[in-house]
Amino acid sequence: MRPRIQIGSSRPQAEHVDAVQNAWKNKNLSLFVGAGLSIPYGVPGWSDLITALLLNEADSRFKAFYPHYQYALASWLTDTVGFGPTSLARVVKYNLEHHNATNISFPQAIKNVLYANYQPKPDQGTSLKAVAHLIARSEAQGGRLRQIVTFNFDDLLEQRLQELNLKCRSVIGPIANKDGYIDIVHPHGVIPQYAEIPEQEIVFSEDEYHQITIQPFHWALTQLASTLSNSTVLCIGLSMTDPNLKRLIDACPRQADSPYHYIVKRDYNISHIDLEEAVWAVQNSADREGKRRGDLRVRKNHWELEAAIRSILKQAHRYDRRLFKDMECRIIWLNTYDDIPQLLDYISKDTDEG
Fold this sequence. Notes:
Blueprint: H1 14-25, E1 29-33, H2 46-55, H3 60-63, H4 67-81, H5 85-98, H6 106-114, H7 127-140, E2 145-150, H8 156-163, E3 168-171, E4 182-185, H9 206-213, H10 219-230, E5 232-236, H11 243-251, E6 261-266, H12 272-293, H13 302-326, E7 329-334, H14 340-348
């Protein structure tokens, strides 16, 4: 049994947490953060952002429904017709650029959706605030974080840093030398909540990702490749389903003496209530498929499906571990994302005095 440590309610492998802590101590830790940090504030994730932009173009019959019905209908469309988020993003962008009766710019359309349901959480210890406090500790100790990259359009991280009286800036082009500011790199662009939207290259749809890929000296590609090649990267709030990020990690192979990169993920645990819902969802799906096939054999027992679902989730854990191991990455498993603040505290705790 590999040694584990207690982080809140979680027991991740001590080896992985210690490796990230050593990178922090050696001033060689970089952060990649994603939508998981902003979602608790009402900011939509990638798929929901695309869905919301799509809903803005819908006809009056569609808009007459409450928002949760709109999203359910949009999800049904995606599942039934096979329109994935990547394809829909390209369609949304095309429509806004070529068939836009309101003449709203594409960045402004994103902004209108991005912060439409923003909910400040001043009294809650969110993962976003924990990252901001980690950055503050880094600055107080001479800059232990080598690079900070966010794949989000929002500037909520910058806002949390400003609340801590730290000078920071959003980087959307070739990085200049540091001059007392904390650089937050936005390789896909930034849409500030309160400031004017800057002139920039917004990376939103697959064609824009492709353009970056074929430009070997594109500033964002160069910066990300350098960060992956020369530091230990800790990924927080990233689903790691983005094929472009995976492609970039594969394009920066780890050398024998190079550090691994680490991904914070919630383990595939399931509560009793969620398990009940999963059983009924699987059973109903099996009933529909059985009718389609003309196979009307007796239903499986409830407990058998529960056992099968638990087994499948354990298998998903193994698949994830093997997938990222093949990418030269390691996973720090947490029972809940609520343990992220304690994880970051642990990583930096031994240097608080120095």
